[in-house]
Specification:
5-stranded antiparallel beta sheet, 18 helices, 6-stranded mixed beta sheet, alpha+beta
């Protein structure tokens, strides 16, 4: 094997497990391994010499790495170039350097949706509805959100200047802010709802999720909360230790939270509760759906298996594996599935990636919770109470089909209405009602944007349209909290959870009230105790 071939083998191996281990293993590899290495070296040489376009060696090596990982047929194992690794790090830590505001694209321009409290954007006076037209002297019309985010972020304490257009103000405003370190909160909306039911929306598991959730629950308890709804819908997961930490809050000491099984060092672990429950008598409903994945499923599975919470919603995603990220030495990294995790009852959360080819679905095992309730295996977590529509109402579906790929234009039309109502002070109370005149105004705004489907299609989805428009108006007139109140009030699953939780006197009483003939998903194939 020549020097280049050894370099290739080492580069590929390093992305898997670190250089020293690969080199020492290669020296003792069987002859078939060397033959395969020679094959790779021969193919590499032919591509380098004969391919119609010149390609650098670094590009070929990166393509080889990406291809090798893709052939493992694991959607979570992949090469992460430096930019992707940086974004992943920001998501898992919640930390970044910027001005602190939520931005969405509206009419080809970035629009300020909500400055984060205390952020540079908030202190500089940016408001919901401000349209950004320039960043540091560069016009931003047509920019996508990721381009805007890159421009607004930068080194700590560096300046960034934006030019904005504010509805009702004839002059453009130039605002200079100093970038600073910011933290994206993991816990979103927190509210005390009717009849002493608390609500917390946990939208990701980053490095501060457990701390934020503990603070939120503690604050709700102090103002009279008697039961809790924790919303994990759409939560994609994140940091394993934070999922364990959240489950730890609601379980007893030494109870198993999750078990990990893999091949490598540290891949076989059992995570158990380390502290006593802070709120042992608090009835808990956990909302899940098909967007609840990874750490969300660890929390849901642990609380269900120990009969500590009632799960409500739809079956979860089924992402039951853990990944390790290993540096490749050039600013990037490789993310590799190192283990799979199992709930306390022994269920695998991981859903098979391939679709069965047989006509009937394969049978799955059933398992028992701590108190003997049956729960299904086979991937994902099945809720105790099914809630939420699996399909749109007929009228809503017709509207969605008519909107097609112009949903963002539909949102822009609602923003037009919200800004106009705010500019003339037409909305004075947070509990306003969407009137027929407001819907007529929205239809006119849509017509101005060249929507050409019949008015009957619009009217057929009137309840949905009214709800969406009300939330948009509430956000632009009264702020993000008011929009959150509307969203909670209009969410049928949250309201169903509130009705169930409000009646419960204890966690066991909540479980008893939720029990209905559940059956087991798919066909049973034995039971484990």
């Amino acid at each position: 094997m020549n020097v280049r071939s050894l370099a290739v083998a080492t580069a590929l191996g390093t992305s898997l497990a670190g250089g020293g281990w690969v080199i020492s293993r290669g020296l003792n590899a069987p002859e078939t391994d060397f033959a395969t290495a020679r094959l790779f070296d021969a193919v590499l040489g032919h591509v380098r010499q004969y391919y119609v376009e010149p390609i650098s060696d670094s590009t070929l090596f990166e393509h080889a790495t990406v291809g090798m990982l893709r052939e493992l047929d694991d959607p979570y194992t992949m090469y992460l170039p430096p930019n992707r690794l940086k974004r992943l790090t920001e998501r898992t830590t919640g930390n970044y350097i910027g001005i602190g505001t939520q931005i969405q694209r509206r009419d080809e321009y970035p629009m300020i949706i909500s400055p984060f409290p205390g952020s540079p954007a908030d202190r500089a006076g940016l408001r919901t509805g401000d349209r950004v037209v320039e960043i540091d002297g560069v016009k931003v019309r047509g920019w996508m959100n990721d381009e805007v985010i890159r421009a607004l972020r930068g080194p700590p304490e560096s300046d960034v200047t934006v030019v904005i257009e504010r509805p009702g103000d004839p002059e453009r405003l130039t605002i200079t802010m100093k970038r600073t370190g910011l933290h994206r909160r993991a816990v979103g909306r927190t509210a005390l709802l009717a009849r002493g039911v608390g609500y917390v929306d946990v939208n990701i598991f980053n490095d501060s999720t457990a701390m934020e959730l503990h603070q939120a629950v503690d604050s709700l308890t102090k103002v009279g909360m008697r039961s809790l709804v924790m919303d994990l819908r759409g939560n994609p997961g994140g940091v394993l230790s934070q999922g364990v930490g959240v489950a730890d809050m609601f379980l007893d000491s030494a109870q198993l939270i999750v078990a990990m099984r893999g091949r490598g060092p540290g891949s076989n672990e059992q995570y158990r509760d380390k502290t006593r429950q802070a709120w042992p008598n608090l009835p808990l409903v956990v909302l899940v759906d098909g967007g609840s994945a990874s750490a969300s499923e660890i929390v849901a599975g642990a609380l269900q298996d120990h009969d500590r919470a009632v799960l409500m919603g739809r079956e979860t995603f089924g992402k039951g594996s853990a990944q390790g990220i290993f540096s490749t030495g050039a600013g990037g990294g490789v993310r590799i599935t190192t283990s799979r995790w199992f709930t306390p009852s022994g269920r695998s959360i991981d859903r098979p990636h391939t679709t069965p080819t047989v006509a009937e679905e394969a049978p799955v095992d059933t398992f028992r919770t701590e108190h003997g309730r049956r729960v299904a295996g086979g991937g994902g977590i099945e809720p105790d109470v099914q809630a939420g529509d699996t399909a749109l109402a007929p009228g809503d579906q017709v509207l969605e089909d008519a909107l097609g790929n112009r949903v963002s234009d539909f949102r822009d039309a609602m923003v037009d209405v919200a800004i106009e109502l705010r500019s003339r002070g037409a909305i004075r109370s947070r509990d306003f009602t969407v009137t027929p005149q407001m819907l007529d105004q929205l239809w006119s705004a849509m017509h101005a944007r060249e929507f050409r489907f019949p008015r009957s299609t619009f009217d057929g989805a009137r309840p949905l349209v009214s709800s969406l428009l009300a939330r948009e108006i509430a956000r632009f007139v009264f702020g993000e909290d008011a929009e959150g109140e509307r969203a909670i009030a209009d969410d049928a699953v949250i309201q169903q959870a509130v009705r169930l939780a409000a009646e419960a006197k204890s966690p066991s009483d909540l479980l008893a009230r939720s029990e209905v003939p559940r059956g087991v998903r798919r066909q049973e194939a034995g039971s484990r105790n």
